[in-house]
Specification:
- The protein is α/β, with parallel strands linked by helices and about 270 residues long.
- About 50% of the residues lie in helices and about 15% in strands.
- It folds into two domains: about 1-70, Orthogonal Bundle (434 Repressor (Amino-terminal Domain)); about 80-265, Endonuclease, Chain A (2-Layer Sandwich), CATH 3.30.870.
- It has helices at about 1-5, 15-20, 25-35, 40-50, 55-70, 75, 80-95, 115-130, 135-145, 160-165, 170-185, 230-245, 250-265, and strands at about 70-75, 100-105, 155-160, 190-195, 210, 215-220, 225-230.
- The chain is elongated.
- The chain starts with a helix and ends with a helix.
- The mean pLDDT is about 90.
Length: about 270
């Protein structure tokens, strides 16, 4: 969009002049160009016409659609509540044979209890100001866990010790969630690794992400999910996951770490 404005056939057009032509606030021009506001198809049509290049609209719209497919804002995704988002995730999970996940401060959704999951949805609904379809969302997330009991599947889950301790729910709910984790250790479809606080880290712990087979990465941020399907991005996240894995404990050591946290929570 900025390129069209700066390379107009009649010479460079200032943001002020373009805003005047379109009848827009001056600030809208720079919000669109700097990614602070997502353009609509109508905005793109007006922009192309305002620059005297209506034939560029189709290319602009094509780029917008590609952008929206990779950067899925929470505002747009949650407009109809959390259940539709869970349904989209369920479809991706059902297509997958191997899933790798990293979470730094929350138990991965596919390993959550219903009570723990309910508190997560309520927290995010309050944060985002969205529809509270909590029970429907919880049921959809619980249905996803059927994948864990199908042969030929494998969930490789990594989490930081912070996920065991974060009181995003009442202590009693967290204790039940931790008991659920210990029951999953040793399942042939689940590999559960936990990075203790005292472990040496080769890279900083950062936002959670999921790798579906070798075809898709979904990374979470506060404003959006990133759905990445290009080979370079998938390879980058796979390297991050392998590097984090080197600091994790498994099996009896992971169970001991979980039990230590449970004992600390019990008196609360």
């Amino acid at each position: 969009m900025r390129e069209l404005r700066l390379s107009s056939p009649g010479g460079r057009v200032t943001g002020t002049e373009l805003a005047r032509r379109l009848g827009w606030p001056h600030s809208k021009i720079y919000k669109l160009e700097n990614g602070r506001q997502t353009a609509t198809s109508g905005d793109l049509r007006a922009w192309a016409d305002g620059m005297g290049q209506p034939d560029t609209f189709e290319e602009l719209e094509s780029r917008l659609k590609g952008f929206e497919s990779h950067i899925r804002s929470w505002r747009r995704q949650l407009a109809a509540g959390h259940r539709p988002v869970q349904d989209s995730w369920n479809a991706e999970v059902s297509r997958s044979k191997a899933i790798r996940v990293w979470e730094e401060s929350v138990v991965p959704g596919m390993l959550q209890t219903a009570d723990y999951s309910r508190h997560i949805f309520l927290r995010y609904a309050a944060l985002q100001g969205t529809i509270r379809d909590t029970d429907d969302a919880v049921r959809a997330r619980m249905k996803r866990q059927e994948w864990l009991y199908q042969g030929g599947r494998r969930l490789h889950a990594l989490m930081w010790e912070a996920a065991l301790r974060a009181l995003i729910c009442p202590p009693s709910v967290l204790v039940a969630q931790l008991d659920r984790l210990t029951g999953l250790i040793g399942m042939d479809t689940v590999e559960l690794g936990i990075i203790p606080f005292g472990a040496s880290l080769k890279i900083p712990a950062a936002n959670g992400f999921w790798i579906f087979d070798e075809r898709l990465v979904v990374a979470e941020d506060w404003h959006a999910e990133l759905w990445l399907d290009d080979a370079d991005s998938i390879d980058a996240y796979a390297r991050v996951w392998r590097t984090l894995r080197e600091s994790a404990v498994y099996g009896a050591d992971a169970q001991h770490l979980i039990n230590t946290v449970v004992r600390e929570l019990a008196p609360r």
